[in-house]
Predict the structure.
Amino acid sequence: MAIVTSSTSQISPALERVYHQSSLLGEWKGNWAGNNQPVSFKVVNIRGARAQVEYTHNGRTERGFGEVAGSLLTFGTVTVGTKDGKSLVLLSSAGAGKQTATLEKQAPPASDSRLMGSWGGYSSDNGKSASFRVLAVNGNEAQVSVTTDGVTRQGTGTVYKNVIMFGQAQIATDDGQNGKIIYQVGNKSFMVPVTKYPPADTSSSVDKTA
């Protein structure tokens, strides 16, 4: 059984299993139902019940922190939610009337998408297995979950080109399908070759590698 330890940033494993909160992460774009004006919403990261967001509407961008409750995220007068991780429903109660919009998740930049996903493998050389989940990449930060020696840690890693470094572990890939996890225990380093798992459906996308 994997042990989950706290870190600088994490989505509660219990809430993630129930609500799939990581599906909120990413950039979403669409149009208001009434006037067809463009609107976008970006969830940079989720830390407990707080989410760092960017909300662009009427030609201006608001940045700040929203509150996460179950499968919904509230930022000021705006509430968003997604059931499938592909479409986001946005409700704004600002002003006299309410506005709604349906937004679609935008694909991450090509350089980031190679790292996105779940990775796992086993090394016959040292008998070690390891897994690494990359939930979101934003610039030089990545939301990750790493399992080594039966211990799972979640938080924010540092991205440099095709490498993510998180605590005493790092993952690297050249082709987006094969890579390696290197992690340190005391003075020893272990290398485990890993491959990217195929995308899971939304009903079973959680804890595949934990």
Remarks:
- Residues 125 and 192 are 9 Å apart (CA to CA).
- The mean pLDDT is 83.
- The radius of gyration is 18 Å.
- Helices lie at 13-19, 110-113.
